[in-house]
Amino acid sequence: MSWRTVYIKDSETLRLKLDNLEVLKNGDKIYIPLSDIEAIVLEGQDTVISTRLLSKLSKNHILLIVCDQKYLPTGIYLEYGQYHRSAKRIHEQLKWSETLKEKAWKNIINQKMNNQINLAKYLGVSADRLDLMNSLSKNIKQLDFTNREGHVAKVYFNSIYGQGFSRNIECIENMAMNFGYTIIRSFIARCLVANGLVTSEGLFHSNEYNQFNLVDDLMEPFRPIVDYWIITRILDEKTDHLTYEKRLKIIDLINQPMFTMDHKKSTLDQVMKNYINKFIESMNNEAIDNLYQINLDDFILANED
Predict the structure, then answer these.
(1) In CATH, what number is assigned to the domain containing residue 12?
(2) Are residues 97 and 218 in the same domain?
(3) Contact between 62 and 38 (Cβ < 8 Å)
(4) Does an H or E element contain 56, and which?
(5) Rounded distance between C-alpha atoms, residue 229 and residue 249, angstroms
(6) Cα(159)–Cα(197) distance, rounded to whole angstroms?
(7) 29 and 90 part of one domain
(8) Is residue 258 within 8 Å of 266, Cβ to Cβ?
């Protein structure tokens, strides 16, 4: 089973060498077995990568994430058509009714809001703010046409980072969150593609220009886990930018322990796979109550055990 997330900074060349990733940098050669690699995060503006290696990455279900000059992930390379029953899986997905998708979305967005409220409580946010978030999250309608999710998010972020905070301003908090969310988004996309799903066919998100609508739907409950990791492990008073060390620590979030729904200790990456597998099973059986529940407390307890 693959397990390593390889972070490559300012390499000269990446190529395939006898089922190994060969990294050339400053005259040195580093070899990593492809069988060990789950994902590669690539920084640097002048790195050359061979098509032979790219082909092998897709055949081995290895995710490649490419970052820009600001070190933010801007692209992902995924396998294509590797699922053994892709036509059957796509046919099943396209049969999901609108009512079924609306019910699934409601369940998933409730998970996200509950995790936001639990994180706010963990961080000592005042009771009145918690009560407001709880009140807003109650009785959410199908497709959330009253935008309860957005209102909860506004109170949540303002409670954690202050009244003047906005997700649109440039600051270390937003840089870290954007980096972390993109890593999670990439891994969810990898899970969906590996299971033969069409990522552009979302539950709630339906932007015609977005090929990852379903990814953006399913990653929602994991966002507060990223927030917890950033607040407790990344932010400090020493730096106001996303250093190399901080980026490495955000990427390492994927490998952190988390309890499963049946109280077994696993990793966040494996929980994601279980979550996606259960999602597919629940949708195909029209059993929304069986969806995997992502609980922030399962991550906190595993990391503070």
Answers:
(1) 3.100.10.20
(2) yes
(3) yes
(4) helix 51-59
(5) 9
(6) 37
(7) no
(8) yes
Shared domain check, 36 and 9: yes
Contact 220/111 with Cβ under 8 angstroms?
A: yes
Give the whole-angstrom CA distance, residue 60 versus residue 55.
9
Across the beta sheet with 13-17, the strand order is 28-33, 20-25, 13-17, 48-49
Residue for token pair 């998010």: 153
**At 276, which CATH number?**
1.20.120.920
Residues 234, 255 within the same domain = yes
pTM, two decimals, is 0.90
Q: Which structural domain, as residue segments, surrounds residue 124? A: 86-303
The answer to whether the CB of 41 falls within 8 A of the CB of 76 is no
Q: Which of 272, 152, 147, 289 is nearest to 204 (CA)?
A: 147
Q: What total of structural domains would you count in the chain?
A: 2
Q: Evaluate whether 29 touches 62 at the Cβ level (below 8 Å).
A: no
Residues 273 and 190: beta-carbon distance below 8 Å: no
Are residues 89 and 195 in contact, defined by beta-carbon separation less than 8 angstroms? Answer: yes
On whether both 153 and 266 belong to a single domain, the answer is yes
Residue 209 burial (10 A CB sphere; 0-12, 13-18, 19+):
exposed
**CA dist., res. 72 & res. 65, Å (int):** 10
Domain boundary among 77, 109, 140: 77
Give yes or no: residues 73 and 99 share one domain.
no
What whole-number distance in Å separates Cα of residue 78 and Cα of residue 101?
25
Q: Same domain, yes or no, for 113 and 208?
A: yes
- 116 and 197, same domain (yes or no): yes
- At 2-22, the pLDDT tens digits run 678 899 887 789 999 999 999
pLDDT tens, residue by residue, 248-289: 999 999 999 999 999 999 999 999 999 999 999 999 999 999
Q: Which helix (H) or strand (E) holds 74?
A: strand 73-77
Q: Are strands 63-67 and 37-43 parallel, antiparallel or unpaired?
A: parallel
The pLDDT of residue 1 is above 70: no
End-of-domain residue from the set 57, 77, 97: 77
